[in-house]
Structure formats: structure tokens, C-alpha cells
Description:
This protein is an all-alpha fold. The protein is built from 19 helices and three strands. It has helices at 3-22, 25-31, 75-81, 84-93, 99-112, 116-122, 132-143, 149-155, 208-229, 244-253, 259-271, 279-289, 294-305, 313-324, 330-339, 357-373, 376-400, 406-416, 424-444; strands at residues 59-62, 67-70, 73-74. Strand 2 and strand 3 form a beta hairpin. S-citryldethia Coenzyme A binds next to helix 18.
Amino acid sequence: MPKTFENITNIVLEAADKARKEIDADKISSYVSAPVEWPVECTVGPGLEGAIACETKIGYVSGKQGNLVYRGYNIFDLCAHSTYEEVAYLLLHGNLPNAERLSEFKSKLAEFRYLPKTLRLLMGFPLEDMNAMAALRMGTNLMRQHQTERDLMQAKVDRTKVISSDDDSVDTHEKVRGEQRAVYEFRDPKANRPARRKAKRDLQQAKGVESCYHLIAGVSTLTAAIARIQRGSLPIEPDPELGHAANLLYMMTGKRPTREAERVMDIALILHADHGMNASTFAAMVVASTLSDIYFSIGSGIAALNGPLHGGANEEVLKTLREIADPKRVDGWYASARKNRRKIMGFGHRVYKAYDPRARVLAPLADYLVNKSGDAEAKNLLKIASGLETRVVADLGASKGIFPNVDFYSGLMYSSMGIPSEMFTPIFAVSRVAGWTARVLEYMKSNRIFRPRATYVGEISRGFTPLADR
Ligand code: SDX
């Protein structure tokens, strides 16, 4: 194994050892439940906290222990010994791929990474003025260029029977009296309509695993293209020789990454790939549960991930570290943040009340890269981060279960790789699209449209007051 790979793998293995010493691994399996007998009793807090929405075999987040498992494999083992392609395949199909399956999967991703038409459409928009996640969400919708099977079925409705507007009930073939033509006249579907494109492959039916592969490949191409276009450069075609992590960096920078940078990005993509019923995964599943299609689902996952309480936190963390500016100011900054009941970005978690296992890997990786870079500003930010972590954990760790989460060190790591902060969250999406698509596919096997309740606490029978008397 090349020296640099060895360095990085050793960092992961050391983090794993440290975690295993603190986590009672045997306790974890006792938390995994037997198949659910619906309906289930669960105590539900605001924001559906504690609500059980479905069964899954895809991933398990052990909040008490601070442990994360994908399809039964511990995240530390996957980071140390596998690649993002293997993990994405694992999440989608339930098993790690053998060499033959992996090479088939990789060649599918290589094929789907080419998005010339989508990028041509995307470049028609003022991306330099847009939020990168807004551009990414639009890009995934543009990937769904072809009419899907469902669109084609809906289009088969004979529109000549459709009333063209509310107030007339004549067949739209008749000219509406007094008008040259109805304002919203539907064209006769038979008259000179371009021959409907026949859905050529299951991709266009916007269902099935091919669309998931298309999106896993495409979100990385879109992210890299958006990064370049926003900085005034043209997108770069993927290199079929490179893997997923390396291609992401190559398409962003135009330079083949070092093996070390490739390995670090691969581990970051593995760490962010899936995480239970987090807000963006749930958003993607809710959209899919209406039988909408996977492209719209992933678009809603991207929309949810954009929020600073969710995926956008790593960008906010860098802003916090820059705001503190000096390790000596950490205590004063923290005291005023607590006084103003300010949420400290990169800390706390709805599920983890222990150290986020992903932060256990990202922290030493950030430390390694920042110190290797020799960049004085980055080293200063790292010192501030470590001082802030000590301060927050001492104050809120044991008492409130507030520890660093996945976002606290990822920003420092990405910026030491030369990645601009506005691309941190899109890179989160590049990884999470595997978890989103896997959980949508799994849920659709026994789909039931999501429809929770709200407790009505308003007035119930008010007498109507006419406008004149209001
Ligand atoms: C991700 O769900 C997932 O799995 C998400 C994720 C994934 O992989 O998909 O893990 C990715 O989203 C990581 C989280 C990134 N967000 C941040 O770092 C933003 C800062 N964190 C907080 O906003 C908060 O911790 C949340 C949103 C992450 C979780 O919030 P909860 O579970 O709704 O907790 P809460 O807001 O109800 O807070 C409970 C208490 C409150 O104190 P009291 O009012 O009871 O006195 O904990 C305090 C909060 O004030 N608290 C914090 C805090 N987080 C919680 N206090 C200071 N700083 C914080 N960061």
C-alpha cells in the first residue's frame, strides 16, 4: 500500500481503536430491534422526534454509543478498507460487491457521469449569482430531461375532451365565440405534435436502480461543474480512468488529485453517505411516497440539506472559527454565545448524545492535512477549533450530550484541500445521494404515503363576521 494511503488508513484505524475503547460494542447489537409489528407505540416530540416512520436494514445510528453502521458494517471498517463506490453499492443492494459487480457498477457510474446536455441547459442559468445548492437542485431536475413513462401516460389523456377554461364548456375544437381562439386552448394532440419520445431505457421511467446510479454519478458531475462555472471556468469532462472521489476533485480543479487527496475525499464521501432518517433523507422519502419520481425526491433532499441546521453547518463552522480569530478568545466568545443562547455550529445532534463517530475520523484527518499544508491561517483555525471543542464538551458534553458532529471538522479538512466553502454542502450531497436513493428504493418496496398529524390547538367554531363589520 503506498505510504500516503498507509498514513491515512492508520489515522482511521487509530480513531477506530480509540472509539472502540470508549464504546461498548456488544451493547450496540442489543439496541437493534426485531421486525416491527405495526402499529407501534412510540413517544413523539416536536419535529417527529422519536417517531418510527418505517423499518430499514440500510443503516443504524447508535446515539447513546456514538456508533454508525451501514448494512451491518461498522463505519470505521468501511473507511479503513473500502471505497465510496463499494459503500454506495452496499447501501443500494445490501451487500458489498464482488470484483465483477464492482466493475459493472463503476462502468455504469462512468457512463452516467457524462452529462453534456444537462450541463448545456444548466449553463443557461446565472449560476455565478446562485447559491450552489440551488444550482445543484436545478441540475438534478434538468437531468430528468426526458419525459418519464408516467409523464407519457398522463400525456395520453385526450385533451380535446378537456375544458379549456373554467367558464366555457364548449369542446376546444369549437372556436370560442367572440374570440379568435381560446386563450388557453389545448392543441389537438393529434395535430403536428412532435412524435413523443419513446422512453428509451429505464432511466426515463424515473424509477428503478438505473436512475439511482444516474443520480449518484450525476450529482458529482453537477457539483464539480457548478464549482467551476461559479468561478468563471468551463466544466471539465470526467476522466473514465478515475474513481468517484478522484473524478470529483479532477472535475472541480482540472488537476488529477494526489493519491492522498483522493483517499481523504473517498473517506469523507463514505462518512457522509447515509445517516438514518435525517431531515434530507426523510424529505426525499416523503416526495417518493407520493409516487413522484426519484429526480424530484433527490431535489427535495438537496433542498433540505441546504439548511445550516443540517448540511449547511460546516460552512457556518468556518465562519465561527474566523469570527473567534484567536485561540485566546475562545473562552470569551463561548461565554457570550451561551449568554445569547446561540447554537454553536458543528455541535449537538438529534440522535448522538456521544461523540459523532464521523467526527472521530474527520478530526484527525483535518489535523493531519492542516499541519501537512503548513498554512498558518489554517493552523490557527485548527487551534481555535480544538480549544472550542474542549470548552463546549467540558460545559455541555456530560450534562447535555452535546459533542462535535460530522460538520465540525469537515470544513477545515475540505478547505485544506483547496475546496471553496460554498462547495462544502454540495459535496455532502455528492455523498448522501447514495443514502437518499437507497432509502427511497427500500421504502418503495412497501410504500405508504407519509401523512403525519398535527394537533389542532386553534379555535373551533367562530361566528362569521361580514367584511363591513370587521
Ligand atoms: C447534521 O439528523 C442527522 O443525522 C443529521 C446529520 C446527517 O448526517 O444527516 O447528522 C447531519 O445535520 C449534523 C448537525 C449539523 N447542525 C449543526 O451543527 C447546527 C448546530 N446544532 C444544533 O442546531 C442542534 O444540535 C441540532 C439541530 C443538530 C439538533 O438539535 P435538536 O436535537 O433539535 O436539539 P434542540 O435544538 O432541541 O436542543 C436541545 C438543547 C437546547 O437547550 P435547552 O433549550 O434545552 O436549554 O440542546 C441545546 C439547545 O439549546 N443545543 C445546543 C446546540 N445544539 C443543541 N446549544 C448550543 N449549541 C448547539 N449546537
